From TrEMBL:
Keywords: Sigma factor, Transcription, Transcription regulation. Residues 23-89 form the RNA polymerase sigma-70 region domain. This is Sigma-70 family RNA polymerase sigma factor. Residues 120-172 form the RNA polymerase sigma factor 70 region 4 type domain. It comes from Robertkochia marina. Belongs to the sigma-70 factor family. ECF subfamily. It holds the Pfam family Sigma70_r2. NCBIfam families: sigma70-ECF (TIGR02937). Gene3D superfamilies: 1.10.1740.10, Winged helix-like DNA-binding domain superfamily/Winged helix DNA-binding domain.
Length: 180
């Protein structure tokens, strides 16, 4: 389904459910992995994904079409994941960095975690990155997302995103070198 057709069908109450179902099929897996790389836990990622699609459905009337539907959905997914992480940090009365460290340490117990020691080391390195650098790194490295698309999703200039990615890579290299 083309974006223009999808947008039109999402706005029409008679075709909204079918178009939304198509939207879920099209983007569910990509959004899941985007969220999962932020929250690390499968069950938490599922919950955040469900909340994302609920928010998308409830707010489809407000979508103006200024950006691509997927950019709008990624922005919602990103915000939902960040809000989830903030709530978790508040709940446990820890900083975001301490929460991230706790989440990485819990990865080994996650039955859905399929990575080995190398993946675990990478996750520990990623946990040291500031939030923005982590987002940019995940979107660029894991999803091979273009900077222009990231710019639309994160509402940041391409130049700032390139700088964030560069700094993230340097920090990861340093961490992995020091902790090998």
């Amino acid at each position: 389904m083309k974006n223009e057709t999808l947008f039109t069908e999402l706005k029409d109450k008679a075709t909204r459910d079918r178009a939304f179902s198509h939207l879920v099929q099209e983007y569910q897996q990509r959004l899941y992995w985007h969220i999962r790389r932020m929250v690390l836990n499968h069950d938490d990622a599922d919950d955040v994904l469900q909340n994302t699609f609920i928010k998308v459905y409830r707010n489809i009337e407000n979508f103006r079409g200024d950006s691509a539907v997927y950019s709008w959905m990624y922005r919602i997914a990103t915000n939902e994941a960040l809000n989830f992480l903030k709530k978790q940090a508040n709940r446990y009365r820890v900083t975001n960095e301490e929460l991230r460290e706790r989440m990485v340490n819990n990865l080994v117990a996650d039955t859905y975690f399929e990575g080995g020691e190398i993946e675990l080391q990478l996750q520990k390195a990623l946990a040291t990155l500031p939030e923005k650098q982590l987002l940019v790194f995940n979107m660029r490295y894991y999803q091979d997302m273009k900077y222009e698309d990231m710019s639309e999703i994160l509402d940041t200039s391409v130049g700032a995103l390139k700088a964030s990615y560069h700094h993230a890579v340097k920090k990861l290299q340093h961490y992995l070198k020091e902790n090998a």
